Recover the amino acids of this structure.
């Protein structure tokens, strides 16, 4: 083999290596950014760019989405402060709050334990009660009944109601722990779909300021709220936190999470 032949062989080998590397890269790209995203049951093909964004965990659009999550007025004007949470250890307003709560008993129970499709309020974190009442009053959370009831409440009324309900023992519930069998979304969430575990915010293991205690809530209420967050018809979650969590959830996952938390009431009653 002369020098020219050796040089040509090396050039052919180099070109083949480049071609093989390009083919491997293209194959990995198609598998990782097209095929794998498309096999998920909740995936709706919207073009190659949507597939790439889904696989990379990035939004396909940084502006208004199809469900209008970033469109419209601010979702809430309430700024959560630690001083709101301090009401749970204060009994100064409990008596006055109990009197005001007489207007709430038809839906939320005599002692905050609902027998209807309304949420339990007994033992609820005070900042949660404050925020939701203020959102109802401002119209940023919609309910004909609740908006009418909150229309004339003063800031003191709202804080006294929150102090009263925080003072009551939690309604027939047991805290969620890692020692029990938990649905996947409750325990670990779904990282590939940007769904955080429920247990990281909603009590039991940890509680994020403003996140409600949901153990023992009526199943129908939880299903209704998750569906509303998913559809964007409930919008009073700051920075669309719950809407972002609920939007990728399937109907079956919503039912599973709601049934798990609703069963917590029965578990506590049987202890």
């Amino acid at each position: 083999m002369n020098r020219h032949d050796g040089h040509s062989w090396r050039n052919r080998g180099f070109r083949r290596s480049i071609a093989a590397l390009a083919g491997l890269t293209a194959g990995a790209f198609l598998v990782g950014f097209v095929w794998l995203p498309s096999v998920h049951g909740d995936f709706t093909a919207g073009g190659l760019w949507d597939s790439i964004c889904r696989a990379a965990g990035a939004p396909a659009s940084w502006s208004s989405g199809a469900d209008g999550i970033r469109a419209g007025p601010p979702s809430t004007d309430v700024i959560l402060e630690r001083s709101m949470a301090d009401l749970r250890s204060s009994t100064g307003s409990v008596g006055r709050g109990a009197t005001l709560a007489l207007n709430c008993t038809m839906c939320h129970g005599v002692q905050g334990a609902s027998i209807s499709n309304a949420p339990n309020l007994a033992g609820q974190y005070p900042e949660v009660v404050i925020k939701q009442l203020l959102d109802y009053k401002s119209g940023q959370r919609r309910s004909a009944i609740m908006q009418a009831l909150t229309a004339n409440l003063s800031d003191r009324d709202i804080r006294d109601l929150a102090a009263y309900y925080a003072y009551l023992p939690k309604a027939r519930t047991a805290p969620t722990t890692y020692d029990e069998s938990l649905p996947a979304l409750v325990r670990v969430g779904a990282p590939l779909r940007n769904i955080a575990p429920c247990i990281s915010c909603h009590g039991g293991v940890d509680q994020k300021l403003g996140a409600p205690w949901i153990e023992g809530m009526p199943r129908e209420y939880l299903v209704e709220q998750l569906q509303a967050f998913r559809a964007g018809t409930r919008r009073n979650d700051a920075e669309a936190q719950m809407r972002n969590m609920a939007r990728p959830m399937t109907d079956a996952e919503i039912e599973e999470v709601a049934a798990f938390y609703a069963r917590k009431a029965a578990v506590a009653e049987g202890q």
In short: The first strand starts at residue 202 and ends at 203.
